[in-house]
Amino acid sequence: MKIFRSFEEAKNINNPVVTTGLFDGVHIGHKAILNRLRMLAEKYNGESVLITFDPHPRKVLYPETAGKDLKLINSQEEKLDLLEKAGLENVIIVEFTREFSKITSEQFVRDLLHRILHAKVIVAGFNHHFGFNKEGDYKQLWKWQTKYHFEAEEIPEQEVYHETVSSTKIRQAISEGYIQRANAYLDHYYIIKGKPENYPIENSPDLPVLVQIPLTEECKILPSLGIYAVSAEAGSFNSKGMAIIHRNPDNTSKVLVNIFDRINFNAENKITVSFHKKMHGAVNFSDNKAISKINLAIEEISDLIY
Questions:
Q1: Are residues 195 and 270 in contact, defined by beta-carbon separation less than 8 angstroms?
Q2: Each residue of 220-262: pLDDT tens digit?
Q3: CB proximity list for 265: less than 8 A, separation 6 or greater
Q4: Would residue 111 count as lying in a domain?
Q5: pTM of the predicted model, to two decimals?
Q6: Distance from C-alpha of 100 to C-alpha of 75, rounded to nearest angstrom
Q7: Which pick of 6, 38, 69, 138 has the fewest CB atoms within 10 Å?
């Protein structure tokens, strides 16, 4: 997958089949769009393109209200990994600024998608809006097809458990610890990617070896406090494991992981931790029962088939 940081860098893409959006989570709805991009790219001998934005527009436009405490399902690195796995060929990451937010929907289509990219097809997700004050939608794209020489297509909403899937619902499920529900919405496991660091725990020599996975972005959402069944992957390495979401004294959370296959584990590599199931609630390391609770969780996770 090719990554571009401006439209000018991407102007030589062949017959671009384009969509726009944040694609936080790269969930089942996003994948329906990406699958359609791939099919259309094959049909027109072109390439699939996602135009996405960084930082999140709410962080820029509403820093003290809607964007202040906004948490995202994926870090930028995680999102790019998921997009590549989904088969996307090109991604254009646009720096979202207040100035950029003032571009009208027609300016966006005319000046960027038509004049620079020469978009062959523009695909819009269900109820997708774009441009200044979110004035642009599929109806406008449909009207502009002849004027700007592209085809427009809309992807219907996706449902899981008879519910419309959205990044907002997924964030809520993750934050409340309903990992299996979140995974169903995502159509893949909720993940945390990072380079492990040793995590010494004072006065607890009987605890299993734990490594901390530092978060690369502060706005990354974490599951509720507790113990989770996870798997850890790095290249060809894959192992079952246990993750503990634990509270820091400053009220932030940290991610601690016990990787079962310690012999083949190389702590020098970044690992992707996939969350499968919540096993127990919060752990208090100062509690005498913490060790037995953690060891019980390890036994239970070892018996799980995943």
A1: yes
A2: 999 999 999 999 999 999 999 999 999 988 888 999 999 999 8
A3: 232, 237, 239, 259
A4: yes
A5: 0.93
A6: 22
A7: 69
Q: Show which of 160, 176, 204 is a domain's final residue.
A: 160
Domain range enclosing 263: 189-303
Q: Which amino acid is at 64?
A: E
Using the Cα atoms of residue 27, residue 219, residue 63 and residue 5 in order, give the sign of their dihedral.
negative
Q: Of the candidates 301, 205, 215, 280, which has an alpha carbon nearest to the alpha carbon of residue 253?
A: 215
Q: 199 with 63, same domain? A: no
Same domain, yes or no, for 142 and 256? Answer: no
Say how far apart CA 123 and CA 88 lie, in whole Å.
14
Residue 63 covered by a domain:
yes
Name the token pair of 69.
């405490």
Look at the chain and report how many structural domains it folds into: 2
Q: Where are the alpha helices (DSSP H) in the chain?
A: 28-43, 57-61, 76-85, 98-101, 105-107, 138-148, 167-175, 179-186, 290-303
pLDDT per position as a tens digit, 114-164: 999 999 999 998 888 899 888 889 999 999 999 999 999 998 877 676 668
For residues 137 and 9, what is the distance between their CA atoms, to the nearest angstrom? 26
pLDDT at 203 over 70: no
8 A C-beta contact, residue 141 and residue 175: no
User: What CA–CA distance (Å, rounded) separates 146 from 286?
Assistant: 68
What letters, b where the CB count within 10 A reaches 16 and e where it falls short, cover 270-289?
ebbbbbbbbbeeebebeeee
- Do 154 and 245 share a domain, yes or no? no
The type of residue at 187 is D
The helix (run of H) or strand (run of E) holding residue 17 is: strand 16-20
Residue the block writes with tokens 């860098």: 9
Within 10 Å of residue 176's Cβ, how many Cβ atoms? Answer: 13
| Pair (298, 251) in one structural domain | yes
- DSSP assignment letter at 208: P
